[in-house]
Amino acid sequence: MARTALRLPTVLRTPWRRDRLEKTEPEPEPAPAPAVAERRPLPLPIRLPIMLLAFVFMVAFAIALARVTLEPSPASEALTHSNMRPGNSLKAYFDYGTVRDTLKQIGGNVLLGVPFGVLVPVLAPRARGVLQVLFLTGLVMLMVELTQGALITGRAFDIDDVILNTTGALLGWLLLGRRMGRAVHARRPKTVEE
């Protein structure tokens, strides 16, 4: 019977040398990050009139919103009903309403939210992001709907109206509000935690 020699890998056969570990090559320095042009807001003499105009539009919009949504409608009292289930009113519009009435209801509620998406990023620098705009719009419209349902004759709470209004705010933010907010307000510097 012949004995076969056990062959060890070269690494194990090489004697341990401390100088091999110490003579490591230095790591190359990372390449510098490309310079990104930082967006600057418009000059102050231009920003101030824009913000003042946005404030005037927001006040006018608040008055118009109150007149449209908070005026009593005694003739509609028998037709109104509250809706707590998302999609219920939309389904009823499509199933039982005329095309004109459906477009008026859905389009009108979406259009009511658009000014929030455009004006909030201009008026509130900390609320320029999409989530902040949607949260503020949803909160304000929820309060309007709760007021309608609790206090206004001929009006009712409808969760679908809140959803449509918030969708309108998203459209306004995407189309114009995001750009206007960046143009009027400087970007916040990123911190180490971010």
**How much of the residues is beta strand, in percent?**
under 5%
Please outline the major beta sheet: none
In total, the number of strands is 0
Spans of at least 5 consecutive residues whose pLDDT stays below 50 are none
**Broad shape:** flat
What is the H-and-E element order? HHHHHHH
In DSSP terms (H or I, runs of 4 or more residues), the helix count works out at: 7
Gyration radius (Cα, Å) is 31 Å
Mean pLDDT: 81
Secondary structural class: mainly alpha
Alpha-carbon distance between the termini?
70 Å
Percent helix range = 55-70%
Written account of the structure:
Helices cover 60% and strands 0% of the residues. It is mostly helical and 194 residues long. Helix 5 (99-123) runs parallel beside helix 7. The radius of gyration is 31 Å and the shape is flat.
Question: Short description, anyone?
Answer:
The protein has helices spanning 10-13, 18-22, 44-69, 88-96, 99-123, 130-151, 159-184. It has 194 residues and is mainly α.
List keywords for this structure.
194 residues; mainly alpha; flat
Topology:
Layout: H1 10-13, H2 18-22, H3 44-69, H4 88-96, H5 99-123, H6 130-151, H7 159-184
